[in-house]
User: Which sequence fits this backbone?
């Protein structure tokens, strides 16, 4: 290899990693500003009910809608991603996600248009789920299918880093608005600004992704044999076991994330009465531990295997879940920050290696469908119901049992990892 070609390869890798990170960060920013608003703002503005708990449960129900849309998005975008290519599908998913997020920023409230407001909000949230359902798998493939030998997990961690980056951008903006606007202005119009600002970020993501070429592995596979006519049907017929195992393996990361973020934010600011800005600051500090965990997990996965790192992360999560409820329930800032930081650090180990783990379960021409379908179906089990079940557990048994949801999710993920390691 000449020096010129080596430099060209280096710049190609940098463009790929930037595109996978920036695009995923934009998508997760869009997804997380909804989760934050669903905990802080939407209950009162869009879901009038008899009690604050009922409002919060209804708002979390709209949050869960996107998780049920994500497998459908995985099937649709996976179909075209495996037949047409990764690049075009990633661009389309980003536009769908951004369009729905922007529309939420203009949506009238229940006081203005009645029941149409929550209905339209739920439809737009469903659209967000469709977009993100096609995003993650494509971004992961964009990274790992361009990785040099021995670097697949470290390349695969870049789309995973989009999660903490998107969270910091989303909650950081809400924190700025909360501290600079009055309560009346924040509820009247300030909450809309993060949704409207998504348009700028989507433009940035599109600009980066439109400069990409197709991944070398996919191009080579297309040249050797035509793709399956219906990738999802082929997946379910020939690789159902891998799809089920992959689905189980991702349950833990969703449960940890949405209990440590959406649920904890709602519980901390309502039941515990902690100031909104203070709790957002705690979460912004804790999310940095997730980024560190992702980086360490990516490095460790290339030295060992993604399956082993994921298993250790799940083992740690089963123990952390036992302590989560009691530490949150203290109402003291230091124990709350400590358990949030530990939970999100462990999430780095049950989430970071997935970019390398899931694509390896499927052949190249089924990877987009297989990885996306498993990832997003696991999100229903681990993430869609997490805030709802946690809120119900508090009402029924108290906060001490909330962390058991994460412990159970980690046990389910260990089953999936055992299945794939046994098959290998």
Assistant:
């Amino acid at each position: 290899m000449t020096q010129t070609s080596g430099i060209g390869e280096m710049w190609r890798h940098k463009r790929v990693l930037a595109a996978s990170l920036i695009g995923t960060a934009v998508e997760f920013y869009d997804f997380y500003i909804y989760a934050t608003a669903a905990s802080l703002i939407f209950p009162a503005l869009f879901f009038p009910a008899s009690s604050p708990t009922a409002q919060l449960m209804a708002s979390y129900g709209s949050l869960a809608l996107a998780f049920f849309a994500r497998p459908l998005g995985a099937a649709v975008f996976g179909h075209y991603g495996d037949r047409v290519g990764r690049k075009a599908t990633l661009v389309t998913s980003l536009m769908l996600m951004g369009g729905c997020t922007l529309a939420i920023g203009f949506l009238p409230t229940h006081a203005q248009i009645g029941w149409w407001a929550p209905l339209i909000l739920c439809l737009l949230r469903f659209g967000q789920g469709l977009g993100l359902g096609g995003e993650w798998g494509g971004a992961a493939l964009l990274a790992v299918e361009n990785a040099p030998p021995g670097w697949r997990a470290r390349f695969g961690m870049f789309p995973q880093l989009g999660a903490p980056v998107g969270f910091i951008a989303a909650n950081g903006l809400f924190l700025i608005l909360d501290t600079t606007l009055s309560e009346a202005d924040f509820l009247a119009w300030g909450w809309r600004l993060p949704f409207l600002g998504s348009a700028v970020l989507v433009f940035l993501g599109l600009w980066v992704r439109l400069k990409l070429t197709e991944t070398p592995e996919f191009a080579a596979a297309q040249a050797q044999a035509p793709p399956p006519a219906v990738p999802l049907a082929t997946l379910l017929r020939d690789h159902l076991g891998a799809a089920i195992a992959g689905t189980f393996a991702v349950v833990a990361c969703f449960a940890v994330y949405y209990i440590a973020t959406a649920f904890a934010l709602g519980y901390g600011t309502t039941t515990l009465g902690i100031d909104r800005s203070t709790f957002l600051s705690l979460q912004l500090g804790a999310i940095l531990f997730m980024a560190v965990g992702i980086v360490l997990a990516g490095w460790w996965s290339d030295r060992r295997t993604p399956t082993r790192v994921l298993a250790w992360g799940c083992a740690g999560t089963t123990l952390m879940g036992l302590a989560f409820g009691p530490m949150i329930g203290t109402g003291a800032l230091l124990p709350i920050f400590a358990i949030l930081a530990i939970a999100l650090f462990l999430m780095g180990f049950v989430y970071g290696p997935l970019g390398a783990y899931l694509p390896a379960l499927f052949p190249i021409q089924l990877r987009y469908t297989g990885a996306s379908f498993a990832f997003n179906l696991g999100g229903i089990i681990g993430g869609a119901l997490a805030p709802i079940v946690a809120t119900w557990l508090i009402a029924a048994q108290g906060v001490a049992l909330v962390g058991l949801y994460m412990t159970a999710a980690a046990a389910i993920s260990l089953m999936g990892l055992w299945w794939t390691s046994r098959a290998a």
